[in-house]
């Protein structure tokens, strides 16, 4: 799946990516929006910038994210 800017997401699991840090465990279950999907890189393994509700903006591995159905 290719994420687009503005997509609503959920951090639904820990990533197996080496970029996953222990503090990111607290983000599992959080919701937010994609702020910078790095579409110029177009690499499904690249980290993408996500603004998490109440937790700030972070660069997260894509395998930890899933889209949230929009009404």
Report on this model:
- With 71 residues, the chain is mainly β.
- The chain has strands spanning 8-11, 31-36, 48-52, 56-60, 65-67.
- Strands 4-3-2-1-5 form a five-stranded antiparallel sheet, with no helix packed on it.
- The chain starts with 7 loop residues before the first strand and ends with a strand.
- The mean pLDDT is 89.
Which key phrases capture this entry?
0% helix, 32% strand, 71 residues, 5-stranded antiparallel β-sheet, mainly beta
Quick rundown:
With 71 residues, the chain is mainly beta. The protein has no helices and 5 strands.
Percent range of helical residues: under 10%
Low-confidence stretches: none
DSSP, total strands = 5
Strand content: 25-35%
- Rg (CA only): 11 Å
What's the average pLDDT? 89
What would you call the shape?
Answer: globular
Main beta-sheet annotation = 5 strands, antiparallel
Helices, by number, come to: 0
Could you tell me how far the N terminus lies from the C terminus, measured between alpha carbons in angstroms?
19 Å
Adjacency order of strands in the biggest sheet? 4-3-2-1-5
H/E element sequence = EEEEE
Overall structural class, as computed from helix and strand content, comes to mainly beta
């Amino acid at each position: 799946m290719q994420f687009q800017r503005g997509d609503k997401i959920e951090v639904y699991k820990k990533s197996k990516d080496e970029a996953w840090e222990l503090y990111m465990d607290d983000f599992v279950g959080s919701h937010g929006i994609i702020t910078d999907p790095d579409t110029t890189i177009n690499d499904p393994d690249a980290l993408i910038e996500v603004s998490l509700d109440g937790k700030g903006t972070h660069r997260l591995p894509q395998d930890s994210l899933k889209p949230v159905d929009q009404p």
